[in-house]
Write a structure and sequence with these properties.
By secondary structure, the protein is mainly β. Helices cover 9% and strands 58% of the residues. It has 1 helix and 10 strands; from the N terminus they run H-E-E-E-E-E-E-E-E-E-E. An 8-stranded antiparallel β-barrel has the order 1-2-3-4-5-6-7-10. It starts with 8 loop residues before the first helix and ends in an 11-residue tail after the last strand.
Length: 167
């Protein structure tokens, strides 16, 4: 076989395309339908539950506790695969409400951007995200917390079904 430098430029491009195509994995974006676990960060901790509602889109509910407040959040998140089906990033938006011991009731809007990893051979998902908020009725009108979550997969993603056509 001749050295690569003697190959026709189109042949070199074709080989490079084949290598890149072989490394690329389909973006499955998620390997579960329902997962629940714990979340910690930004001075609070709590519970997180994620439910796949349509392909690549989840609803996530958060019940959070901090030293002087309690809050609940609902987020809609869109997931995108990175380097295969086990690692993905997501972004979305939602709203929250809560009660602060000093300020009383508050509510607001949330954004979220993060990444999650499904651990191979274990029913666990690890995620790290950034969730900026705008609040009304609170001394803090905005927050910029990051958090880490560990979720246990309750229901795996089905391999067949009506929504499979939309993947």
């Amino acid at each position: 076989m001749p050295p690569a430098s003697r190959w026709h430029p189109l042949a070199r491009q074709g080989v490079a395309l084949l290598v890149l195509t072989g490394l690329a994995q389909p973006a499955a974006a998620q390997k579960y339908r329902t997962a629940a676990g714990v979340r910690s960060g930004g001075g609070n901790y709590g519970l997180t539950v994620q439910q796949l509602v349509i392909p690549k889109t989840t609803l996530e509910g958060l019940a959070l506790l901090a030293p002087r407040e309690r809050s609940a959040t609902l987020l809609a998140e869109r997931h995108f695969g990175i380097l295969g089906p086990s690692l993905n990033y997501y972004f979305g938006a939602g709203a929250h409400f809560g009660r602060h011991k000093d300020d009383g009731t508050f509510w607001g809007f949330d954004g979220v951007v993060g990444a999650e990893y499904k651990i191979a051979f274990l029913p666990l998902v690890l995620s790290l995200d950034f969730k900026p908020t705008i609040e009304y009725g609170s001394a803090d009108w905005n927050r910029f917390p990051t958090a880490f979550s560990v979720r246990y997969i309750i229901l795996k993603k089905r391999k067949t079904g009506i929504f499979r056509a939309f993947d």
